[in-house]
């Protein structure tokens, strides 16, 4: 065994950092020059929102793990109640998440 066993881990960490962090910094630099109301940022927000909603829909319709034990009506109802809470709370995401998860957990405990 080599004395430089850590070399492989250093290369993996460095390559992982370079692959992601450079793009983050470039995003920060480019983001500082963009107007918040520009079409480009509106498009980025729309795509990000669509991706989050697609993942949420996938978790509701095709769940894995413990959530798969919950019936579809409970999963969909939890999302619906979370959305209503989101609207009533002045579009606060944390309220939506807490209400949806609480509803789902309560439903699983009662079933």
UniProtKB/TrEMBL annotation:
Alphabetized UniProt keyword annotations: Membrane, Transmembrane, Transmembrane helix
Residues annotated as transmembrane: 6-26, 47-68, 80-110
Record bears the keyword Transmembrane: yes
InterPro entries: Brnchd-chn_aa_trnsp_AzlD
Domain of life: Bacteria
Entries under Pfam families matching the protein: AzlD
Protein name: AzlD domain-containing protein
Protein species of origin: Rhizobium helianthi
